[in-house]
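User: My collaborator sent over this chain with a note saying "see what the structure looks like." That's all I know about it. Can you take a look?
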Amino acid sequence: MEQTDLIERMTPAELDALRGAAAWYAKYNHAKIEEALDDRSAYAMIRRERYIALVSALRKLGFDMALPDALAAELRSAA
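Assistant: Without extra context I'll predict from the sequence alone. Here is the result:
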C-alpha cells in the first residue's frame, strides 16, 4: 500500500489527531533542536533533518510551523 493511500483512508478526526500530535512533538522539541545547532555529530544532524521533514509535513497538512530561526538561517545559507 502506498503512503498516499494511507492518508486518503484517514478520517478527518484521525488526520486532525495526527496533525495535533505532530505539532505538539515539533513544538516540544523546538528548543532542543535550536540548542543543539552547533553540534555537528551525525546523530544531531540526523535529528535536525528529521525535524525539518516533520515541519515540512506539518506545513503540507495545513499547520503553519516555523523552524527555529538559527536553523532556518542555516538552511538558507546552505542553499
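A starting point for your reply to your collaborator: The first helix runs from residue 3 to 9.
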